[in-house]
Design brief:
The complex is a heterodimer of chains A (about 350) and B (about 525). Chain A has 17 helices and eleven strands. Chain A has about 350 residues and is of the alpha/beta class. Chain B has about 525 residues and is α+β, with helices and mostly antiparallel strands. Helix content of chain B is about 20%, strand content about 45%. In chain B, strand 12 and strand 13 form a beta hairpin. In chain B, helix 1 runs antiparallel to helix 2. The chains are: A alpha/beta (about 350), B alpha+beta (about 525).
């Protein structure tokens, strides 16, 4: 008697429990998706104008496709500094930084992205490229033609500190790569060349923006080693009567990468829209906008259309010459690395 | 000087050249042929005399040109030097600017790396600049009073007491690991009320190990300082208090759904346990949802519903008078025992499967709050060899509150917008509350004869129903004054022999002054 009553009560209780549990879980599913979504894009310094226009373009596309209003907030700063900010808790949904090395840190230091992040989007997750060129005074009074002119006595060279500036690391590696090619791969001669070049640097700013101030506003230096897109921006905005661009015979292919920050995007429920945002960079509209802001597009049709916009020069990649960012960083820019050996303030 | 000399020479030359010609004209001509020859000779003589002067003139011109060139070159060099000096000056200025930027960056970095110490309403907090390590010292002090009305003088004891005097150490290690240590000194005893370690790598999946509240009772799980009444309701008497074990818990869908599931030693209803005397463990789980939290339906965003439960096997013993029976005693809001199983040697003891189920929920909208829960607790109880019953006790409560000063009511307490300040004429926040709660003991506990029934109906009530009203004064988030009145009515629990009577109602006024930091 007792057992039968017990079983019955237990069964009823279990059934009621399951019913309540089901109701709880069923009710917990969001009754209605939000109409608005926000993204945070943490980027490096020179991309302000590009993303201002790109964000408006993407918002329009997303609204037409899904009916959802997307607002993209931007954060800009030195690439390495921005990566550290995200590692320390700045909840970026996407990052669009200058170096793959800085993006790698999001995996290594905080597991915010998967290890294979770079293979998730085409072209090593770099939707546009740039390179390193020389910005000189109008008339090119010091007759700068190529990298070796920067190492001559009497030529003042402006470049930021590669220990603190992501852009400056591209500059340094471009010079080193040139010297290696000129000297048949002789690392010692490359070191001598880069050493002479840095002896010609009168002011070593901590960032690319500082170097632009030094050269353009303070009028210091004969030649500024610069991102191509920055150089084109300076020339076209400040007037062709003040500066000229000199394309060296050989330079490095700079591939600024982009990625979704999975941990934060998942937390915000923005994985899908963040992915679509970055994919839009590869679309024709996205590539046209990149070109408009002086980045070299990946899409061949867009590149062909704007072929005359960018100087023709031979480019090498960091993988070809240095075996990738990790090796380059540890050999040249780590403490007591090559740069510390050749430059003593 | 040289130019003056040159002009003098030219003037002299001119006068020398003109002189002989004039003399020749003045002398006239003796004979044409002779005077012409004389003149020519004279001219030749003068020309010979002029040749050195001409040479000197050429030399002076050359020197003048050389000097001009030298001046131009010196001027150019001076200009170049001036430009170089200007450039050096610009470089020095810029270098100083850069050095200042670097100094500022270093100072900012140092400031960022310096540990942070804060002292405020949430306690004393020190943490490393990178957030990886931190220690917070907080605490709570509850000074209570209990006054029984119409209890016939000394039947129930009126008293002041410290219900809680607790220090709370919350620590963070390597950002992902947190711990809590909370020694409790209230009620004249010393115990570790909470002691656990959390691993919080993912928000959706966290691990807790140690002594903590069992994930069952809704009011029990509310922070100890946020309850609306001085005494917890009857459902908390059937839910576990603190238990030691391991649990997984987390937030899903951005806090819309929370869950907890764990394995614990297992405790009798309403009790805490530090030691387990048997191998069998208790499984506990809870799911709680805020289904409208992320929607635009603002009136429903404060709705929370859930269900919790436990299942286990509890073994007590009544081998001796002091054996642990693993059975609860049930108490009134005034902390007077109104139900207990028969104790002593050959008394009742837990012997078998136990389980609990508790649907629960709350609703908050502006200053209004409503909380309700229902707990069914079942336990196999034995007494001797004859009586083995599955006792199923049930309790429920519905509590409503309203913040008179308009602040939002919430499960996490009330934060006054204008904390108490005589100088500013601010009075904090006031809240009124009312509740009804009931606990129904399974009639099966009273079946049988005196020698083998599990509980004595003349000592233990079969049901207790309480009505309570309260006024809470939140002077600030840290200081709260509470005053409640609760009246509890019983079925059974008094009488003698076969004549079971209802226990006298308990009417009590409770007061509490609480400080938390």
């Amino acid at each position: 008697m007792i057992l039968w009553r017990t079983k019955n009560m237990t069964t009823n209780k279990a059934f009621r429990s399951l019913l309540i549990l089901g109701a709880v879980i069923g009710l917990s599913l969001p009754a209605r998706a939000a109409d608005e979504v926000r993204l945070l894009n943490v980027s490096y310094d020179p991309t302000r104008e590009l993303y201002q226009e790109f964000n408006a373009s993407f918002a329009k596309l997303w609204k037409e496709k899904t009916g959802q209003t997307v607002t993209v907030n931007q954060s800009h700063g030195g690439s390495g500094k921005q990566a550290r900010a995200v590692i320390d808790g700045l909840q970026a949904d996407v990052v669009t930084l200058a170096l793959a090395y800085d993006v790698d840190a999001l995996f290594q230091k905080a597991a915010l992205i998967p290890q294979n992040w770079q293979s998730r989007l085409p072209h090593n997750s770099a939707p546009y490229t740039s390179t390193i060129v020389f910005l000189v005074r109008k008339g090119n009074p010091k007759q700068i033609k190529d990298w070796n002119d920067l190492a001559k006595p009497g030529v003042a060279v402006i470049t930021p500190n590669p220990k603190t500036s992501g852009g400056a690391r591209w500059n340094y590696l471009a010079a080193w790569g040139y010297a290696l090619k000129q000297n048949g791969g002789d690392e010692t001669k490359a070191k001598e060349f880069v050493s002479r070049l840095f002896k010609n640097v009168p002011v070593l700013d901590s960032g690319a923006r500082g170097s632009t101030v030094t050269f353009v506003e303070r009028g210091i230096g004969d030649v500024f080693i610069s991102w191509e897109n920055e150089a084109l921006l300076v020339v076209n905005n400040l007037g062709k009567d003040q500066f000229e661009i000199v394309a060296p015979s050989l330079s490095i292919l700079a591939e600024p990468p982009v990625t979704v920050v999975d941990k934060f995007a998942a937390k915000h429920g923005t994985l899908a829209v963040a992915k679509a945002y970055l994919e839009h960079l590869y679309s024709e509209e996205g590539q046209e906008l990149a070109t408009k802001h002086y980045y070299r597009p990946r899409l061949e049709s867009v590149a062909a259309k704007h072929a005359g916009k960018f100087p023709q020069l031979k480019l090498f990649t960091i993988d070809e010459v240095f075996g990738g960012w990790q090796k380059a960083q540890s050999q040249h820019f780590a403490d007591d690395g090559v740069f510390d050996q050749i430059y003593k303030p | 000087m040289r130019k003056a000399r040159l002009f003098t020479m030219l003037a002299l030359l001119g006068s020398v050249a003109i002189g002989p010609a004039q003399r020749a004209v003045a002398q006239g001509t003796d004979s044409p042929k002779q005077s012409l020859e004389d003149r020519l000779q004279l001219l030749e003589k003068e020309l010979k005399r002029l040749q050195p002067l001409e040479q000197e003139l050429k030399t002076l011109k050359t020197q003048l040109d050389e000097q001009k060139t030298a001046v131009t070159e010196r001027e150019a060099a001076a200009t170049q030097k001036a430009q170089a000096v200007e450039q050096d000056l610009k470089i020095l200025k810029r270098q100083r600017e850069v050095d200042k930027e670097v100094e500022l960056a270093v100072a900012e970095k140092k400031a960022k790396e310096a540990p942070i110490l804060t002292v405020g309403s949430k306690g004393i907090f020190v943490k490393s600049a990178d957030g990886n390590f931190g220690l917070k010292l907080g605490g709570q002090l509850k000074t209570d009073s209990r006054t029984f009305l119409e209890d016939g003088g000394e039947r129930l004891t009126d008293s002041f007491y410290i219900s809680s005097a607790r220090l709370i150490f919350d620590g963070t290690l390597f950002k992902e690991f947190e711990f809590r240590l909370a020694p409790e000194f209230g009620n004249g005893s010393t115990q570790l009320i909470d002691g656990y370690i959390d691993w919080k790598h993912w928000n959706a999946l966290k691990l807790r190990a140690g002594k903590t509240k069992g994930p069952v009772g809704l009011e029990r799980l509310q922070s100890d300082v946020d309850n609306q009444f001085v005494s917890l309701g009857f459902p908390s008497s059937l839910a576990p208090n603190r238990d030691i074990g391991l649990q997984l818990y987390g937030d899903l869908f951005d806090g819309v759904l929370t869950y907890a599931a764990g394995v614990f030693n297992g405790t009798p209803d309403g009790a805490s346990a530090d030691i387990d005397e048997h191998d069998s463990k208790e499984l506990a789980a809870r799911v709680f949802a805020h289904p409208f939290k992320k929607t635009d339906l603002k009136p429903l965003q404060g709705l929370g519903v859930g269900v919790a439960g436990t299942v286990g096997n509890r073994q007590g013993s009544a081998a001796t008078a002091t054996s642990n029976t693993a059975l609860p005693s049930l108490k009134t809001p005034g902390q007077n025992t109104f139900f207990t199983y028969v104790t002593g040697a050959n008394g009742a003891y837990a012997d078998g499967v136990e389980d609990r189920i508790s649907p629960q929920g709350y609703y908050y909208l502006g200053p209004f709050g409503l909380l309700g829960e229902y707990v069914i607790s079942s336990q196999e109880v034995r007494r001797g060899t004859v009586n083995n019953q599955r006792i199923q006790n049930a309790a429920w409560q519905v509590a409503a509150s309203y913040v008179l000063t308009g602040e939002n009511a919430s499960y996490k307490g009330v934060t006054p917008e204008n904390p108490f300040s005589l100088a500013k004429g601010q009075w904090g926040a006031f809240e009124i509350a009312a509740r009804i709660h009931e606990l129904d003991v399974d009639d099966a506990a009273f079946t049988g004869i005196a020698a083998n029934r599990l509980a004595d109906p003349t000592v233990s009530a079969t049901k207790a129903t309480a009505l309570g009203v309260g006024l809470n004064w939140y002077l600030s988030k840290n200081v709260k004054l509470m005053i409640d009145y609760e009246q509890t009515r019983f079925e059974g629990g008094a009488g003698a022999g076969a004549s079971v009577q209802n226990r006298q109602d308990e009417k009590a006024v409770f007061g509490r002054l609480q400080v938390v930091f």
